[in-house]
Amino acid sequence: MNNASDSAATLPGLNGLFELPPRTLYLATAAHGPRLRTVQAAAQAALVASVAPWLLSTSAWETSIESVRTGAAALFAGDGDGDAVALVPSASYALAIAARNLPLSAGDAVLVLDGQFPSNLLPWQQRCGEVGARLVAACRDPGQDWTGAVLAALDADPAIRVLALPQVYWHDGSLLDLDRISARARNAGAALVLDLSQSLGALPAATARWQPDFAVAVGHKWLLGAPGLAYLWAAPQWRARGVSIEQHWQARDIRDWHVATGRPPPYRAGARRYDAGGVADPLHLAMADAALAQVKAWGVTRIATALRARTAAFEVALRERGLSAWLPSGPMAHFIGVRPTDAASLGAVEAALSTAGVVVTARHGLLRIAPHLHVEVDDLRRVATIIADAAETVAIGG
Question: Is the overall model pTM greater than 0.90, yes or no?
Answer without folding.
Answer: yes
